[in-house]
Every structure is written in structure tokens, then in C-alpha cells.
Write a structure and sequence with these properties.
The protein is α+β, with helices and mostly antiparallel strands. It has helices at 47-52, 72-76, 87-92, and strands at 11-14, 19-27, 32-37, 42-46, 55-58. It has one domain (11-89).
Length: 105
């Protein structure tokens, strides 16, 4: 049974199925853990499932960063937002609400 407390960003090995995975998200409200296996597959576990797993802490695989690498075709279809300048420059151009009369409500 899992005696490890799930820690965001840490790698573990599921001994029963011999798979490495990383904790990518923890949701305290829904009591779920999002994991990503070394092959890129994502899964969601509840805390009851986690507590019944036979796991051990593990080192990340050597090529684990390649899970997040995009090839040229994938880069063409990303939703990246490109801005010039700093975020403070963007805020400087905003007008106060009083200009539109919204402060009267």
C-alpha cells in the first residue's frame, strides 16, 4: 500500500505494473491526483486508489523532458500568445472605469 504522500512534481514507480509516473496536479477539493506516465499518457486517481497502490519513489527517466517537447508541426498549431514589452506596459494603456460611467452603479 502507498505510504508516500503524493508530492507535486515527484516521480514514482507503480510496482504492480512497472510504470514510472510523475505527479502533475493535486486537487484537494475533489481529492484527486493527476499523473503523467513516462510515455506521456495522463491519468487521474482518487486518494483511495492512491493509498492502495504499491509504489515507490523513483528518479525521473533520462529523457523525461522530451514528453513536453513539440515537433515543428505541433508548434504551428499551439495557442501561444506573443506580446512585446512587459505586462506593466499593457496595463498602462487601460483607462479607468469612470470614463465609461461604470463607477456610478
Amino acid at each position: 500500500m502507498a505510504s508516500h504522500i503524493p508530492t507535486l512534481g515527484h516521480w514514482y514507480q507503480d510496482i504492480a505494473i512497472h510504470r514510472l509516473f510523475q505527479i502533475i496536479a493535486l486537487d484537494e477539493y475533489s481529492a484527486t491526483i493527476d499523473i503523467q506516465y513516462e510515455d506521456g499518457e495522463n491519468d487521474e486517481l482518487d486518494l483511495d486508489s492512491w493509498s492502495q497502490m504499491a509504489i515507490t519513489g523513483a528518479n525521473p527517466p533520462e529523457d523525461w523532458q522530451s514528453l513536453f517537447a513539440l515537433d515543428e508541426e505541433q508548434r504551428l498549431f499551439t495557442d501561444d500568445v506573443i506580446t512585446s514589452g512587459s505586462s506593466s506596459d499593457l496595463l498602462a494603456g487601460l483607462k479607468p472605469d469612470s470614463q465609461f460611467g461604470w463607477d456610478e452603479f
